[in-house]
Amino acid sequence: MKITRLYETAKDTSERISEIPFADRAFKPTGWIPTTLTLKPSEEHQKFEGFGGALTESSGYVLSRLPSNIRQQAIEAYYNPHTGNGYRLARIHMNSCDFSLDNWACVPEKDETLTSFSMERTDKYISPLAVDVQKAAQNAGSSVQFLVSPWSPPVWMKDNGDMNHGGHLLPHYKDLWAQYFVKFIQKMAERDIKISFVTIQNEPAAVQTWDSCEYSASEEGEFAAKYLGPALEKAGLGHVKIYIWDHNRDLALERLEESLAVPGAEKYVAGLAFHWYSGDQYDNIKTIAQKYPQIDLMFTEGCIEGGPRDGAWFSGERYAHNIINDLKSGCTKWIDWNIVLDMQGGPNHVGNYCDAPILADEKTGSLHFQSSFYYIGHFSRFIQPGAVRLSSEFFSYMTPATVSGHLTDEAETLAFRNPDGTVVLIITNRTEADLAFELKVEFSKSEKNTNLISDWEKARTQGNSQDAHAQPEGSSSEGTTSVYLSVDAANNEPVYLKIPPRAIQTWILEDK
User: Fold this and answer.
1) How far apart are CA 144 and CA 153, in angstroms?
2) At 496, is the secondary structure helix, strand, or coil?
3) What is the distance of C-alpha 410 from the center of its chain?
4) Which of 51, 133, 356, 405 is the most exposed place for a label (fewest CB within 10 A)?
5) Is the pLDDT at 471 greater than 50, yes or no?
6) Where does 387-501 have alpha helices with state H?
7) What is the rounded distance in angstroms from the CA atom of residue 10 to the CA atom of residue 371?
């Protein structure tokens, strides 16, 4: 196995996903190197489908106020696979969300026939952005899959008479709300935007000052089984996959099991969507991946809250930490929040300002690319759709540059094998010093066990079979032994590498 390319982004440098010579980061140690990064190509896990962002009304509005060439620059920066981050997913909100200019709905006044269903607000900023995003991807030989999520039904469908402050969908409108989904999906198709996924409700356990609606886990399961799933099927939209939860990792496992306990829910619930705002409860996601391999796991929202962080470095590091651990836990799709916001972190109709990977200055007509944009790009530009995750891990006896003296999660790693056979190895270093390590590649002597590949679509059709489960990370197939091989561009000597402080690297390896 040979290292062929290296890309790096580092704080206090000009390097931004910059290709640098391998020799610049290789060295011959003069003393003991206590840190080892081990790549295990024989241990395969889930397939990954791609990255994306949210095309909110706020993002569309901000982009509409920029010069047309700058607007196109932002779109290409995300969705062009050759010159940008190569996004292949996009999230759209049905009715308003907090990142809208105000509360609105496609049927604002009571209309139990939905004959007044209007796309006027959606067509002002959201649909044009979705069309242009899709066009940018297609012109570069790529494609985009779209996810639709509602924050709230119209006020007349809710028990609190308010799109904000939680409340519940009135029971006698469950069927009509399912038809609302159908109508929106059909209207988007008329605009050449094919919807592939829906979530039942954004953050169904939260009562927010902005657009929100509460569902219990059993209510989500019931809505999928009795209303939304059958409605989609009847309308010829059975290809649209239904995801539940769309909220934080902390309750993901509990909510999934309660929803699946509803009779008929297993037929229609294709996956679970989750956010990062409750913290690092990755074990919940990992448990779902291992226990319910038929359930797809899609990350659908995360951002730095509390306003914009123009020029901050920690934001990129937070994204990398979440991406690495979500993907190591079994996530197959990863969607960021707003693709673009203004310099205030909005607009947001309740003042819930946040950061985004690109901030736009409407006064100067310029784009401010944040560290998060480049950190995401180290994953999204190189991990191809259909790539299979490989086991990789750091081990260190001691790390002088950390407070505890140990590595903990100050350096992390992730690896994938692309369909073309290339291996993508991503490394982060959040310490304030160079991190030196030996790179080892551990191969199994036996043939690769293809049963270790967790294909969630296959698992859905086969059920909870033995072969559908991914092997726990770090374990070996029975009856096999392992040998350690070094990696070097020229010979088989040990390879020692380093990553600068506060940096991320993407290494491309090939079998040669």
Assistant:
1) 26
2) strand
3) 21
4) 405
5) no
6) 456-462
7) 9
What is residue 135's three-state secondary structure?
helix
> 413-468, pLDDT tens digit by residue?
999 999 999 999 999 999 999 999 999 998 876 544 433 333 444 444 444 333 33
18: amino acid identity, one letter:
S
Q: What is the distance, to the nearest Å, from the Cα of residue 288 to the centroid of all Cα atoms in its chain?
A: 17
d(CA 398, CA 204): 43
How many CB atoms within 10 Å of residue 267?
13
| C-alpha–C-alpha distance, residues 465 and 481, integer Å | 26
CA 114 to chain centre: 33
- Helical pair 282-291 and 314-328, crossing angle rounded to 10 deg: 20
Residue 369 carries which side chain, given as an amino acid letter? F
At residue 463, the pLDDT reads 42
CA atoms of 227 and 131, how far apart (whole Å): 29
Collapsed DSSP state (helix, strand, coil) of residue 456:
helix
Q: Is the dihedral of CA 281, 282, 283, 286 positive or negative?
A: positive
> Which tokens go with 498?
């380093």
Q: State the DSSP H helix or E strand holding residue 88, giving kind and residue range, or none if neither.
A: none
Give per-residue pLDDT as tens, 303-343: 999 999 999 999 999 999 999 999 999 999 999 999 999 99
